[in-house]
Specification:
Blueprint lengths: L4 H11 L3 H6 L7 E5 L16 E3 L6 E4 L9 H4 L3 E3 L5 H7 L6 E4 L6 H10 L4 E5 L3 H13 L5 E4 L3 H7 L4 E7 L13 H8 L2 H18 E11 L8 H10 L3 E3 L9 E2 L14 E3 L9 E8 L17 H14 L5 H5 L1 E4 L2 E4 L12 E3 L2 E7 L2 E4 L1 H5 L9 E4 L4 H7 L4 E2 L5 E7 L2 E9 L2 E4 L9
Parallel strand pairs: 5-6, 5-8, 6-7, 8-9, 19-21
Antiparallel strand pairs: 1-3, 1-4, 2-3, 7-16, 9-13, 10-13, 11-12, 12-13, 14-15, 15-17, 17-18, 20-23, 21-22, 22-23
Helix pairs in contact: 4-5, 7-9
Length: about 450
């Protein structure tokens, strides 16, 4: 691999006698990983998979797989049973350590790997706001959230400055997976080398500094701020953290040694900030690409914030239509779901508990998208199906993983099936795939067009 000469020079100075091992790692194949989705599957799911898997040491739900296995082409992937993620990136969610009931914001979330990881740890309890400033990236982010069966997530596409102004001191945990020069991903994607030559570390430092300033404003006292990059450059990593800690003495670095069995960060002589508590993953030392993570605790005493809550509103006609549909498929919604339904034009959402008011912000999804209400009729969404388990509904079509009808369904084809007319949840084994509507023994495929296999 042809690496930029200036990059090689900087890495030689940084790594010294470890430089040769580092450079030789670029002649080795990259690693591939998937993370099992605890919202969908249990501990025994791994035994059902046809792939040879190896455990990723810094993520309890993470596994290596062989490139030739292509798990993204499996029906279990379409059912949201696992998320395909670069192994080193999994250490970020592990560092955040999300808990049920937390209020969390992921400021640079696309394509959704860290959001879906944290959401699984939260068990659909609490609130997670998944934000990305790029509208074009938010669409894929939202799809990954939906396919994972997440109910407690709002999706925004906003400048972190605007979010900090709207929601100061609101969140228990803030994640900044910062835009960076991407040096750690050169082996995974050599095209990033050209991007680095056009926009190097110095171009990203002011962006990272600005996002951290917003993250500080969003975090409540007593909360934690996690910062990560996929680059090696100290300007974007240890120096960025040292600068932030000096400007904000109410923070201290959290020791992650017991959570992340990887390398310590570099210390800096002029800063006495315990920078060895930051963590690095190196491709010549660990089975993954390059990553950096730092977790900081905001020591100030907790204080109350007066953020206006989101007030769900829905017409009686829309709620009655949803209730009628639920009864028709044998689904008994939780009281919490009914009390927190919100209608935005024709779309109906479940608003997570603790959601703040979003007035004036660019919101892509207000919560769990349940379906649409048009012409006095409710039609269920793909996201609604993805978040349901087969035992929650009476009307369901259970297909075996090896059944060719699974592939036909995922391609959007009509299936012949001997059941009564009505809506059905279509499942592969014990995992939901989407909806179908049976009319005269023909299942009209309702899987969302953008989710279909080509």
């Amino acid at each position: 691999m042809d690496l930029p000469l200036f990059f090689e020079k900087e890495m030689r100075v940084l790594l010294q006698d470890k430089y040769i091992d580092f450079i030789e790692s670029y002649n080795q194949p990259r690693y591939f990983g998937l993370r099992v989705n605890a919202l969908k599957v249990g501990d025994d799911f791994i035994d059902q998979m046809d792939f040879e898997l190896g455990k990723i040491p810094w993520c309890d739900q993470g596994y290596y797989y062989h490139e030739d296995d292509r798990p993204g082409k499996d029906a279990y992937y379409m059912a949201g049973c696992y998320y395909i993620q670069e192994p080193s990136a999994m250490m970020v969610g592990a560092a955040v350590d999300a808990k049920p009931g937390d209020k969390i914001i992921d400021l640079c979330a696309a394509p959704g790997g860290k959001t879906t990881h944290m959401a699984a740890m939260m068990e659909n309890r609490g609130l997670i706001v998944s934000n990305d400033i790029s509208p074009s990236r938010v669409r894929n982010l939202n799809k990954n959230i939906q396919i994972s069966g997440i109910r407690n997530c709002m999706v925004t596409s906003e400048d972190p400055v605007a979010l900090a102004k709207a929601w100061p001191g609101y969140f228990d945990k803030v994640l900044v997976d910062a835009p960076c020069s991407g040096e750690g991903m050169f082996r995974k994607d050599p095209k990033l080398i050209k991007s680095w030559e056009e926009n190097g570390p110095d171009d990203f430092v002011p962006i990272q500094r600005s996002i951290l300033a917003s993250a500080h404003r969003l975090l409540k006292n007593g909360g934690t701020l996690t910062y990560s990059t996929c680059t090696f450059n100290m300007k974007e990593n240890e120096y960025m953290i040292a600068e932030f800690l000096q400007a904000h003495p109410q923070y201290e670095l959290v020791e992650l040694k017991s959570v992340l069995p990887v390398s310590d960060g570099f210390t800096i002589d002029m800063f006495d900030e315990n920078l060895e508590r930051t963590k690095r993953l190196w491709p010549h030392l660990h089975e993954g690409e390059g990553h950096f993570v730092a977790k900081m605790y905001k020591k100030d005493e907790d204080s109350e914030t007066s953020i206006r809550p989101f007030k769900p509103l829905i017409s009686m006609e829309a709620k009655d239509a949803f209730w009628s549909f639920a009864k028709s498929i044998g689904y008994d919604p939780e009281v919490d779901t009914l009390e927190n339904m919100h209608q935005h034009v024709e779309k109906i959402f479940y608003i997570p508990k603790g959601a703040p008011d979003t007035k004036g912000l660019r919101v892509f999804s207000s919560g769990w998208f349940i379906g649409t209400f048009q012409k006095n009729r409710f039609e269920p969404s793909q996201a609604f199906a993805s978040a349901l388990k087969p035992d929650q509904v009476k009307n369901k079509i259970m297909l075996d993983h090896e059944d060719m009808n699974v592939t036909r369904y995922l391609k959007g084809e009509t299936l012949s099936i001997d059941v009564e007319n009505g809506w059905y949840l279509v499942c592969v084994d014990a995992y939901s795939l989407g909806w179908g509507k049976v009319v005269h023994h023909k299942l009209r495929n309702k899987i969302e067009a953008s989710w279909r296999w080509l």
